[in-house]
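Q: For a teaching handout, I want to show students what a protein-ligand complex looks like in token form. Below are the inputs, and the small molecule is histidyl-adenosine monophosphate. Please produce the holo structure.
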Amino acid sequence: MKFTAPRGTKDILPQDIPVWRHIEDTARQTFCIYGFNEIRTPIFESTELFERGIGDDTDIIQKEMYTFLDKGNRSITLRPEGTAPVVRAFLQNKLYSSGQTSKLFYSGPMFRYERPQAGRYRQFHQIGVENLGADHPSADAEVIAMGFHLFEKLKIKNLKVYINSIGDAICRPVVEERIKQFLALNLKNLSPDLQKKFEHKPLRILDSKDEKVQLYLSGMPNMIDSLSQKSKDHFNSVLDYLTTLKIPFEVRPTLVRGLEYYSETVFEIVADDLDGAKNTLCGGGRYDKLVEEFGGPKTPAVGFAFGVERAALLIQKQKKFKTKLSPNFYVAPLGFSQQSRCFKLINDLRKHGIHCEFDYSKTDLKGHLKVANQLSASHAIIYGENEANKKAVLIKDMTTGAQTDMSLRKLPGYLMKLCLL
Ligand code: HAM
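A: Here is the structure, written as tokens, with histidyl-adenosine monophosphate included.
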């Protein structure tokens, strides 16, 4: 019987790990500089958390959740995103009690039953941030700048922010009415699915992935004109901050995003592929009502999440990602009787933090040197009877072939210096 990974999932192989580590480490460092602290939440939550948080009319809730009954007959869902769980944790652990804003970040696998394609998986990894408690437009600009800064540090080229405002609950009916007026002219050309959304959730139509619908929507009047003065002022202030920081942005009147908790600012950070295609790396926005909807105190919030697979793909496509490998050493016993001594030597060297390898299926020097080459070891450490009598080893540089005698006492220091070169 042959097993393969389930459709839409993939193994992250050892050769991909350096770029993943690089993304994760750079994200952690960047978020810490901006004052965000890590939080870890469970991979599964109650289904209701997502239904209430993300919204019934979204594709995620209607089609994409991995939901099952556990043995206690509870409906459980593998998390499709991180915002609702972080808000749940914020409330459950009363993180609001300090009165300070909570700046949190998280990373880990998410699950959505989507049609798999390049950069779109059923198990994917997100790194996200949430600033809970901040209502000032500078908080929106801060998270956008932080995302942009991170992608710049990762040397992802041709970055741009797409941004829009969908207003707050007060101006939402006006915005929705404007959209309906525009769409009414062409209602019969919309799919039955979109026609259903027309009456109650016209904003969701703007989120359609259908290219024909998107082309038609490009002629839609600017939504910003229908916002209340308060929402307009908030949005313009966010744009002013971005201009001050020289962050390239484009206001996209049809940008609404696929989750229902958003209000006011919504944004995406996109990057051009080598072939010019736009890749959405990151999505986010303000969600000022979600904490209250979950039964918490009034807590405006803003955040984003990005897909690690997409970032890794872009980094690998846009430039060849190189990792500097520290030299590793291969320890070759000369003769069976030396194996045990070598085993102890390897153990001692590893305790000094030195990366060394061995292979006792080989018994002669030629065989050992062949393995050392296959492992790309920088040096072979040869240890025979003669060397043992002198309490020394012979070090062979695998590139130049040069050989050096070294006492066992000085060996760890010598190898550590080589690692620093
Ligand atoms: P989202 O736009 O659904 O937002 O996802 C954010 C990012 O996750 C996307 O831009 C994309 O890079 C990645 N992503 C989403 N789905 C997939 C997939 N199937 N395969 C690979 N990558 C994917 C959220 O999840 C919000 N919780 C973001 C947020 C945080 N808003 C406020 N705070």
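A: Two things your students might notice: The longest strand covers residues 102-111. Residues 237 and 352 are 55 Å apart (CA to CA).
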